[in-house]
């Protein structure tokens, strides 16, 4: 049955953190349609593994490539929506899969609607088969889903409540049905959804979930949304679609038709249509690390495909094929969209006279045929997934072209590209900077252009000057302007007309690297690049001026400012009114009359919206001072509020910096500022708004002792400060501290002891601490037990590479929430080991060792009852037989156990659920674990993953 949530559940398993960590390779394949040749499935598996298309190899070659990818790796394969019920074919596939040289413990998860598939798999001799049948949802869960998507809130209208039983009967326990009905009712007036329910959904028995999809489709409005919906079915089921690509395709096909006065609004209409399809649940939103994507449920995809094919002419109108030979020559005249893998002959391409969309992809696509110029109706050309490096002159005849997607392999353009006056989007796809690319000549004629990732300034007389940007008032999103050293001054810079581009939210201004250190022309250029007030993010790179312009300081909307390698820039020159946050301060005045006379007070807020400020590679920056109030010789008082909402301040590679202004932000990161005095850093950390502090590679810092109790500080990380000797004296009173990391601070020898005179006494010390890490502190000898007396929230404790640490008498009963304990490469920690492991019911991971070469450690093994991973255990002469009682143990790593010869008894080892065993530098035990001949081999031969050497 479709719509139960099989794919949703499979996705949740596929993305689960434990799954991600347990398997070396994850493979997701949506089979979707019935395939007649098993090599098609293997081809999809290989494509998932390599992240690209596979050319037409024989089955043996494809399987060999899969085997090479999975050799000695444990994989997790998902076959989603399997429709094949041919027993011979399925047996062939899974027998081949079982024959791959992969690690034991690999899994295959299959979702299917067919009972026959389950029957076939259950009989396969090489499959350890487990069946899980999803049940239908209860009525309450269905009702909750329906309400969520209908956006009715907790207060359900009485009329809808009265229909509850009938609506739930229509849902039939299917989450997809509940979601579709909710989406159908969303944003409708009461009269509308009452009509929909009574006349279309609840009027007798009108079929299953397919009927609900049909009703949702029938009520789509305006009418062009239906075309946009059906068009989505030309993609393979489970395809994830990016917003701009989808809207640009709809636009190319003519589905987005504004009135004649609003032609520039086509994209906005597309975004509105997309919102409607999401709202009605006919499209689903997918979010991951790449961004936001859209896809169709398989049942919805099937319906959309039936709509597209309802008119027989549509079957030949939109094609996605892997070979031009598969194109019906009779249909070439009616073809509108063509996705083609591989090259295409010049004469063949010229037959597609009415083509609107052309996408060529694959390693075989090395050049664009000259006949491309004959496709005068072409609106979208995508060659971004090809290896094309040059574009033919005939491309310049595509006067209707709106969208061009190319890769960074295309290093230049034909001379007459300016003729493409319908261009709206120029996309450079894939990674790379594109700094060597020469822009299209005369791009200023593209007055409808909205998307332009970067603009590399070149010679003005060749049509590559900055003035080409002036007429592009519709540019939106992000734009990088490079080679600004070629701009002659303010007047030339103003020709870019950035102040008339309200849809740009991010700008990057980049000068090329030059030998001279200072260039006053840079200041004039930056002054002339004043953007529209809507700008929220600005990056300035390699600027050689020493002053910033008034428009930057006056910005009331800028949220992020990044200054990189602006080595001559002064942040504090009051006499020239050029410092960040101080410039141009006399704007409003008010009289303050007192007994001693009168004075004028001017108040000004600088960067009122700025939340993120980054200073990087400012080699000559020496001072950056506070500025809140200044009195002039005439008795005028200037009151200034600088960065009032700043949240994050990053300072990196500013070796001469000695002062930083008082922070109002919540996050402070300092990296490579060797001249910053210790006292300055200590004072910075006192301010009540500060929640996160990172100090990295500041060799001048010797002590943080003066850092008093920071009431709101949640995270303190100190890394690579090799001369740091002392941590804050009141560290134990940081009541909000959740994360504490001290890394690579070679001279720290102690964490000190809590001050008994403070008002908190011994109660509540570090009560919020969740994660504590100390690594690479070679002179640290001991950690005070008082430090952990009240750490009831501690979940993760990591000590590593502290070679002088000899004492850690921690009673772990004081840390009942501990989940992970790591004690790694602290070779002298013998005398006093932590105790109380037996009380830790939440402990999941233990990493411990190696220690001294001379004695074995005493360890409370009973505390590992709930642990799933025991790693790096060393200096054991024997493993206890009751190790078999550790029911949750899945991973055991033995390292450097020179005296260990035997594992626990066979019976005890069989009780374990070990999936991974690693034995390293345990010579005596390794010899006894020799395959077939070793005395301990029978105890471990069934463990899925073994690494013994």
Helices and strands in order, then pairings?
Elements: H1 6-15, H2 17-22, E1 25-30, H3 39-50, H4 59-70, E2 75-80, H5 87-98, E3 107-110, H6 115-123, H7 139-150, H8 158-162, H9 164-171, H10 175-185, H11 190-201, H12 209-218, H13 224-231, E4 241-242, H14 243-252, H15 266-279, E5 284-288, E6 291-295, H16 298-308, E7 318-321, E8 337-341, H17 346-349, E9 357-361, E10 380-382, E11 403-407, E12 425-429, E13 451-452, E14 454-456, E15 477-482, H18 490-494, E16 504-510, H19 520-528, E17 537-541, H20 550-553, E18 560-564, E19 589-594, E20 597-606, E21 612-616, E22 629-631, E23 637-642, E24 648-652, E25 667-671, H21 678-684, E26 692-696, E27 715-719, E28 739-743, E29 771-775, E30 796-800, E31 820-824, E32 845-849, E33 869-873, E34 891-895, H22 906-911, E35 916-920, H23 923-928, H24 937-940, E36 945-948
Parallel strand pairs: 1-2, 2-3, 7-8, 8-9, 9-10, 10-11, 11-12, 12-13, 14-15, 15-16, 16-17, 17-18, 18-21, 20-23, 21-24, 24-25, 25-26, 26-27, 27-28, 28-29, 29-30, 30-31, 31-32, 32-33, 33-34, 34-35, 35-36
Antiparallel strand pairs: 4-6, 5-6, 19-20, 22-23
Keywords: ATP-binding, Leucine-rich repeat, Nucleotide-binding, Plant defense, Repeat
Family: Belongs to the disease resistance NB-LRR family.
Domain NB-ARC: 1-150
Short description:
The protein is α/β, with parallel strands linked by helices and 949 residues long.
Poorly predicted segments = 572-596
Instruction: Please outline the major beta sheet.
Output: 19 strands, parallel
CATH hierarchy, class of the domain at 6-123: Alpha Beta
Shape: globular
**Radius of gyration (Å):** 34 Å
> Given the helix and strand composition, which structural class is it?
alpha/beta
**Average of the residue pLDDT scores:** 81
The number of helices is: 24
Q: How far apart lie the N and C ends?
A: 50 Å
Specify the CATH architecture of the domain at 6-123.
Answer: 3-Layer(aba) Sandwich
How helical, in percent, are the residues?
10-25%
CATH fold topology of the domain at 6-123:
Rossmann fold
Task: Note the beta-strand portion.
Answer: 15-25%
């Amino acid at each position: 049955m479709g719509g139960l949530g099989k794919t949703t559940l499979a996705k949740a398993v596929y993305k689960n953190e434990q799954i991600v960590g347990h398997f070396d390779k994850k493979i997701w394949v949506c089979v979707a349609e019935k395939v007649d040749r098993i090599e098609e499935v293997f081809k999809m598996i290989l494509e998932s593994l390599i992240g690209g298309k596979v050319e037409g190899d024989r089955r043996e070659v494809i399987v060999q490539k899969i085997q090479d990818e999975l050799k000695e790796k444990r994989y997790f394969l998902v076959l989603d929506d399997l429709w094949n019920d041919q027993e011979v074919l399925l047996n062939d596939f899974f027998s081949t899969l079982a024959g791959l040289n992969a690690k034991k413990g690999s899994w295959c998860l299959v979702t299917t609607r067919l009972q026959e598939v389950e029957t076939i798999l259950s009989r396969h001799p090489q499959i350890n088969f487990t069946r899980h049948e999803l049940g239908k949802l209860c009525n309450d869960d269905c009702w909750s889903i329906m309400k969520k998507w209908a956006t009715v809130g907790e207060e359900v209208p009485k009329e809808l409540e009265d229909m509850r039983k009938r609506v739930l009967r229509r849902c039939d326990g299917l989450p997809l049905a509940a979601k579709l009905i909710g989406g159908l009712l969303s944003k409708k007036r009461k009269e509308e959804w009452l009509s929909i329910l009574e006349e279309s959904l609840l009027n007798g028995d009108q079929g299953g979930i397919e009927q609900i999809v049909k009703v949702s489709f029938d009520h789509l409005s305006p009418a062009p949304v239906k075309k946009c919906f059906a068009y989505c079915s030309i993609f393979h089921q489970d395809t994830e679609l990016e917003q701009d690509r989808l809207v640009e395709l709809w636009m190319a096909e003519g589905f987005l038709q504004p009135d004649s006065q609003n032609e520039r609004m086509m994209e906005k209409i597309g975004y509105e249509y997309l919102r409607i399809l999401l709202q009605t649940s006919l499209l689903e939103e997918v979010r991951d690390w790449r961004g936001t994507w859209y896809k169709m449920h398989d049942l919805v995809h099937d319906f959309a495909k039936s709509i597209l094919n309802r008119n027989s002419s549509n079957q030949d109108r939109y094609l996605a094929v892997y070979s031009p030979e598969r194109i019906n020559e009779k249909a070439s005249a009616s073809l509108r969209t063509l996705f083609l893998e591989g090259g295409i002959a010049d004469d063949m391409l010229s037959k597609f006279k009415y083509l609107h969309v052309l996408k060529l992809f694959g390693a075989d696509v090395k050049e664009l045929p000259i006949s491309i110029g004959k496709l005068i109706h072409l609106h979208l050309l995508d060659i971004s997934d090809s290896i094309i490096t040059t574009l033919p002159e005939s491309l310049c005849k595509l006067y209707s072209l709106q969208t061009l997607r190319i890769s960074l392999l295309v290093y230049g353009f034909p001379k007459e590209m300016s003729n493409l006056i319908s261009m709206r989007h120029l996309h450079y796809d894939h990674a790379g900077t594109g700094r060597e690319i020469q822009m299209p000549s005369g791009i200023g004629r593209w007055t409808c252009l909205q998307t332009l990732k970067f603009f590399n300034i070149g010679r003005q007389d060749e049509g590559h000057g900055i003035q080409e940007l002036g007429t592009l008032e519709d540019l939106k999103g992000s734009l990088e302007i490079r080679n600004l050293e070629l701009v002659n001054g303010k007047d030339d810079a103003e020709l870019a007309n950035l102040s008339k581009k309200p849809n740009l939210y991010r700008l990057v201004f980049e000068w090329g690297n030059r030998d001279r250190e200072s260039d006053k022309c840079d200041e004039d250029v930056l002054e002339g690049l004043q953007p529209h007030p809507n700008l929220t993010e600005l990056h300035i790179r390699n600027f050689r001026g020493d002053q910033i312009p008034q428009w930057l300081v006056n910005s009331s909307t800028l949220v992020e400012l990044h200054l990189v390698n602006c080595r001559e820039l002064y942040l504090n020159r009051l006499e020239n009114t050029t410092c960040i946050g101080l410039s141009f301060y006399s704007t409003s005045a008010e009289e303050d009359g007192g007994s001693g006379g009168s004075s004028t007070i001017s108040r000004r807020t600088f960067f009122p919206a700025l939340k993120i400020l980054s200073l990087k590679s400012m080699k000559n920056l020496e001072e950056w001072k506070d500025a809140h109030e200044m009195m002039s010789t005439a008795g005028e008082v200037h009151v200034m509020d600088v960065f009032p909402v700043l949240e994050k301040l990053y300072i990196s590679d500013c070796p001469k910096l000695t002062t930083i202004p008082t922070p109002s932000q919540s996050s402070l990161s300092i990296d490579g500022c060797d001249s910053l005095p210790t006292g300055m850093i200590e004072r910075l950390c006192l301010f009540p708004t500060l929640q996160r502090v990172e100090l990295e590679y500041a060799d001048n810092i010797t002590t943080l002792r003066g850092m008093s109790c920071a009431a709101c500080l949640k995270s303190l990380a100190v890394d690579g400060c090799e001369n740091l000797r002392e941590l804050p004296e009141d560290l134990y009173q940081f009541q909000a501290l959740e994360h504490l990391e001290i890394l690579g601070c070679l001279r720290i020898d102690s964490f000190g002891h809590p001050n008994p005179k403070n008002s908190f006494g011994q109660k509540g010390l570090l009560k919020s601490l969740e994660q504590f890490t100390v690594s690479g502190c070679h002179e640290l000898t001991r950690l005070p037990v008082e430090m952990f007396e009240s750490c009831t929230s501690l979940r993760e404790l990591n000590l590593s590479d502290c070679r002088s640490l000899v004492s850690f008498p921690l009673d772990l009963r004081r840390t009942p929430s501990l989940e992970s304990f790591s004690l790694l490469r602290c070779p002298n920690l013998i005398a006093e080991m932590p105790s109380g492991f037996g009380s830790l019911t939440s402990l999941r991971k233990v990493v411990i060792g190696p220690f001294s070469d001379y004695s074995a450690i005493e360890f409370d093994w009973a505390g590992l009852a709930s642990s799933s991973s025991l790693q790096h255990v060393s200096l054991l002469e024997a493993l206890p037989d009751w190790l078999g009682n550790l029911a949750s143990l899945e991973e055991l790593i033995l390292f450097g156990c020179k005296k260990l010869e035997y594992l626990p008894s066979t019976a005890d080892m069989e009780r374990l659920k070990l999936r991974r065993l690693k034995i390293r530098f345990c010579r005596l035990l390794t010899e006894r674990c020799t395959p077939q001949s070793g005395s301990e081999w029978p105890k471990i031969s069934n463990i899925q993953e073994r690494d013994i050497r």
